[in-house]
Amino acid sequence: MTWWDADPDDDDEDDEFDESDVRVRPSRKGSRPRTKIRPEHNDAQTGRVLGVDRGRYSILIDESTRDERQLTAARASELRRKSVVTGDRVDLVGDLSGDDGTLARIVRIQPRTTLLRRSADDTDEVERVIVANADQMLIVVAAANPEPRIRLVDRYLVAAYDAGISPILCITKTDLADPAEFLRNFAGLDLPIFTSSEGNLPVDDITASLINHDTVFVGHSGVGKSTLVNALVPEAKRATGVVNTVTGRGRHTSSSTVSLRLATDAGRGWVIDTPGVRSFGLGHIDTDNILKSFTDLAAIAEDCPRGCTHLPDAPDCAINEAVAAGRLGETGKGRLDSLQRLLTTFAKAPGH
């Protein structure tokens, strides 16, 4: 029967179509039932994430062996809701040859020892993970051009202490200004400090402090961070920029976080270069972690009343009383001033 037949009961042997001619579209999901059971990937190999670029991960495997090689990987579908960042140790399967055009697959993220995080601003509790598994933070600050920002350095310190990362301070461009007054703000901290000027970069001393460590470099744009990285790791060839003479701001020269190997006769380490930033939100910080970094003051704080802020106006604060009584010696007041400044930096953040 054709569609123009007037009589539907007419059995026309010349009908052009019947149901057997209809092609059924297969289901896109396939016929196999979905399952939440995932393979264990017992044969997976662990590697270090060196960098991330548009969903592709640069991975180093067989580190420090004759078979060491770099490869490119993508995340497995089961990790689509988990971020993989520079510094992560990950388990991989698939083609691990590292040959051009090959792509391995990241199936697991190893437990992280530390996480350096920041938020977009102080009111944003959504954390942005900058790097994983770093144990040191080198804060690069210029003595001038651009002017050093005490509050930004305080924020770096708060983030480092919260993550359990040991901070180091490097002051560049000391030929342009004396950093002594700026450095007095950090006199109460157990903070290694390096200074450099044009033509006098203490590469050997800084290198010695980086051996056997994974050190994340942070700093305001234009402070000379990329110049320092290139001096420590010449093959890095990180782009450098200049400071705008009108705005006093530096130009962003690094667009992504990347791990660079530091290799010397004395040993090896990792330099993790990050893009320059002009703000560092603290929406995710736990203030208890700041106090823990001041081990001597934290021990005294056990005698503070519940909920003590440890600020100058905190009633019955055991730390304030101990410093006032001189029980912490000459360094006690400076240590307390540094702690209270960092706590105030966080307390004044909107939303806290």
Protein model, in words:
By secondary structure, the chain is of the alpha/beta class. It has three domains: 45-109, OB fold (Dihydrolipoamide Acetyltransferase, E2P); 115-273, P-loop containing nucleotide triphosphate hydrolases (Rossmann fold); 287-347, Ribonucleotide Reductase Protein R1, domain 1 (Orthogonal Bundle), CATH 1.10.40. It is built from eight helices and 13 strands. The protein has a six-stranded mixed beta sheet. The chain has a five-stranded mixed beta barrel with strand order 1-2-3-5-4. It has a two-stranded antiparallel sheet with strand order 6-7. Helix 1 (150-163) crosses helix 8 (330-347). It is globular.
- Ranges where pLDDT stays below 50 over 5 or more residues in a row are 241-254
> How would a crystallographer describe the biggest sheet?
6 strands, mixed
Oligomeric description of these chains: single chain
Rg over alpha carbons? 29 Å
> What would you give as the CATH superfamily of the largest domain?
P-loop containing nucleotide triphosphate hydrolases
**Portion in helices:** 10-25%
Our estimate of the beta-strand percent is 15-25%
Number of structural units classed as domains: 3
CATH topology of the largest domain: Rossmann fold
Q: What coarse outline follows from CA principal-axis ratios? A: globular
Number of strands: 13
Mean pLDDT: 83
**Strand order, largest beta sheet:** 10-9-8-11-13-12
Structural class assignment = alpha/beta
The CATH architecture of the largest domain: 3-Layer(aba) Sandwich
Q: What is the CATH domain class of the largest domain?
A: Alpha Beta
**Contiguous helical run count:** 8
Order of helix and strand elements from N to C terminus:
EEEEEEEEHEHEHEHEEHHHH
From the N-terminal CA to the C-terminal CA, the straight-line distance is: 78 Å
